[in-house]
Specification:
31% strand, 4-stranded mixed β-sheet, 5-stranded mixed β-sheet, Nucleotidyltransferase, domain 5, alpha/beta, 2 domains
Length: 265
Amino acid sequence: MMNSQWRIGLELHSSGLRAVGLQFRRQGWRLCRWWHLPFGSPGVEYTSGEFARQAAQTLSHWRKSLPYRYQLRVSVPAQRALQQQVAMPDCTLPEPQLQRYIEQAAAAQLALPDDPLAWDYMHPGTGPARVTGVRLRDIQRLVAILRSARLTASSISPDASALQSFLPRAQGGDQWLVHREPGHWLWAGGGQWGTEASTDPHWLAQWCQQRELNPASVAFSSALAEDAARVTFSPWSGIPGLSAPLPPCAGVFTVATGLALGSLR
């Protein structure tokens, strides 16, 4: 099976743009291209007007390098997302009614009547549904930024949730993946995901201790060059079609690659 359409994962953060383009061929996924475009004035607040201006400008320039056929999957910071578990109803409901039930139950538990949320949920088959909510104004703002650059997202999801695309494909069959970024950490495993702000290089050991996990059994990725000797996972480890030149730090593209893989791997 071959597909000429690229799957592009796009991560916008306070310092710029990271993106990865993948294409599925007979031999498996092929890395078509990667992009790392910093903003002119990096480090701006994600919700600021200056971020929107710089993002729109960078995206407009970036769009000119895209192929004719592609699917764009975009992330929002996991810090901007909310998670909730919702008990499923006793009776079987049609999908539209079930969706309304889950949205209303999650909204009531989170108690955010004046801050509408965009919802998505996953039901593992037994037990409660896992619900993710992102503030509607954040989604609308991101969509407006993309539209100003004449781009349309096929999906928008929290960056930490993109790590689930690699599991259980992480090295050694690890069921947990932790990724480090400047200023914060992302993690996923056991059907869950999350984030925490920290610059502590020993945060991973503390996180494992809290969950009674052996650090050696947790796959570790990092966007920081200083972690090169400790990294045990590369986002491109399961992509057979790699060709030079490749960036010196593959971990910079962990989120973008996870977005591109998504549920389509």
